[in-house]
Amino acid sequence: MPKWFMPFAGLTAVMFAASPFVIASVRYESTMGLVQKIFYYHMPSASMFLLSAVVCGLASARYLFKGSPRQDRLAYAAAELTVLFGAITLVTGPLWARKAWGVWWTWDVRLTASLMGWMVAWAYLLVRKYGGPGSDKLAAGLALFGMANVPFVYISVNYWRTIHPKTSVVPTLPADMGMALWFSFVCFLMLFTLLLRLRVRLEEQRAKLDALYLSLDE
Amino acid sequence: MPARRSLGEGVRVAWLILRKDLTVEVRSLEIAYTTLFFAVSCVLFFAFALVKEGKAPEDGAAGILWIAIAFAGTLALGRTFERERQSETLRALLMAPADRPAIYVGKLLGIIALLVAAEIVLVPLVAFLFQAPLLSHPFWLGAVLLSGTIGFAAVGTLFSAMLVRARSRDVLLPVLLYPITVPVIIAGVRATAELLQPDVELALVRFWVALLLALDVVFVTLALWTFEPLMTD
Q1: Which of A96, A98, A89 is nearest to A121 (CA)?
Q2: Closest-approach residue (CA) in chain A for B224
Q3: A144 touches chain B (CB under 8 A)
Q4: Where are the domains of chain A?
Q5: Are B175 and A126 inside 8 Å of each other by CB?
Q6: Of A50, A131, B29, B43, which has the fewest Cβ atoms less than 10 A away?
Q7: Are A150 and A54 in contact (CB under 8 A)?
Q8: How far is CA B173 from CA A124, A126, B74, B105, in A?
Q9: Considering only alpha carbons, which residue of chain B is nearest residue A120?
Q10: Measured between CB atoms, which of B162, B171, B186 is closest to A141?
Q11: Separation in Å, CA B134 to CA A84, B61, B128, B142
Q12: Which residues of B make CB contacts under 8 Å with A?
């Protein structure tokens, strides 16, 4: 583990522990009240969901065209994080929607595209696990399609008439709400970095172990 | 890696592969018959389940047409490459002095031709069983079906070619294909459903067709770009 890892992990834990207090200290949103506070976790986790899909796609592209196994391990780790943060997004979203829109789920463009991106990440993991030899390249191809979906999720709310709030809401937030949002955004970004590093390390050690077994056989 | 050849050479390779696939198919008609039979039984199941007292659910026909196309397409994709695998001809194809993207385009055109043939049978069948006025705007229906089929087949051809070497390829093809082609199916179903309305809003249909064409461009570009590294051992 690199030297920065433990202090960074500690800092992340402290910030996450503090985040409920930061969020509670912010004013209520005028129409939705308490339930709007889920936003402070929903939007950061959704951002990490899209970010990890992009990391996975970029690493996969580099793996496909350059063939570096490091990039492959990074892509694998990012795909798992896409599933994880996607799950958080897809749980917090409906919880908020139930109160704000009156329904758990609606086939809105952004919701549909997000679900699709999440399914692509699942498909990636399934292929890696059950595809047998050569599945790493197959999965990398899939990740590129998953990455192509990301800008679509991002812009969908601005181009379609949807029920989901637009991306332009964020800069118009009052100062205290914006502060709480960016605080949890940084929390999630740190968590993302930690998990990614940890997961890549696990894959590195797995690769080392495989190499050792191979040399033992020879 | 072979040096880049000219565009005309690529077109010729694609055409040769298309002609080869069609010749093989016309001789046995195996994929055409099995796929079509499967698609027709699919539509019949839905007709038994959903049509009550001669009335089909609203928009049902559009969804069922596309489900039948997607299922039949999955089957056809699997079989096309299974054939290449059994006789080890895919390896020969990849060793031939031709650009990989041209091989991909040839394969893609073959799949599209098969699916269009299936659609020619499926559309009247669905129209008949669900009493849907599918043929009232033949031009637009053709545009929707063709652009949707291209998008679906573009992703399908890439992944089924890659899956030739994988272990559980039959299971993995739908796992890979369906999440990615969801937007194609959504746009296709919405556009077809709009065409079934008593007074069709053509602007809406045009919008969905434009979306389908945009998806086609994205999918075909991505596939052409990745086919070469993906098919290299």
Answers
A1: A89
A2: A141
A3: yes
A4: 35-217
A5: yes
A6: B29
A7: yes
A8: 12, 11, 7, 19
A9: B179
A10: B162
A11: 43, 9, 9, 10
A12: 155, 158-159, 162-163, 165-168, 171-172, 175-176, 178-180, 182-183, 186, 218-219, 222, 226, 229-230
B54 dihedral zone (left: phi>0; alpha: psi -120 to 50; beta):
left
Structural contact between residues B214 and A161, judged by C-beta atoms closer than 8 angstroms = no
Instruction: Show the tokens assigned to A38.
Output: 């889920």
Along the 218 residues of chain A, how does pLDDT read in single tens digits?
788 999 999 999 999 999 999 988 888 887 778 888 899 999 999 999 999 999 999 999 999 999 889 999 999 999 999 999 999 999 999 999 988 888 899 888 889 889 999 999 999 999 888 887 778 888 999 999 999 889 888 888 777 777 888 887 888 888 888 889 999 999 999 999 999 999 999 999 999 999 999 999 87
Q: Compare CB distances from B179 to A123, A130, A140 and report the shortest one's residue.
A: A123
- In three state form, how does the secondary structure of chain A look? CCCCHHHHHHHHHHHHHHHHHHHHHCCCECCCEHHHHHHHHHHHHHHHHHHHHHHHHHHHHHHHHHCCHHHHHHHHHHHHHHHHHHHHHHHHHHHHHHHHCCCCCCCCHHHHHHHHHHHHHHHHHHHHHHCCCCHHHHHHHHHHHHHHHHHHHHHHHHHCCCCCCCHHHHHHCCHHHHHHHHHHHHHHHHHHHHHHHHHHHHHHHHHHHHHHHHHHHC
Residues B183 and B49: beta-carbon distance below 8 Å: no
**Given an 8 Å threshold on Cβ–Cβ distance, is A138 in contact with B230?**
yes
Q: Is B52 helix (H, G, I), strand (E, B) or coil?
A: strand
Q: Which residue type sits at B115? A: L
Taking contacts as CB-CB distances below 8 angstroms, the residues of chain B near A133 are 165, 167
With CA atoms as reference, the chain A residue closest to B233 would be A134
- The residues spanned by each domain of chain B are 7-230
CA angle in degrees (0–180, nearest 5) for B36-B39-B45: 140
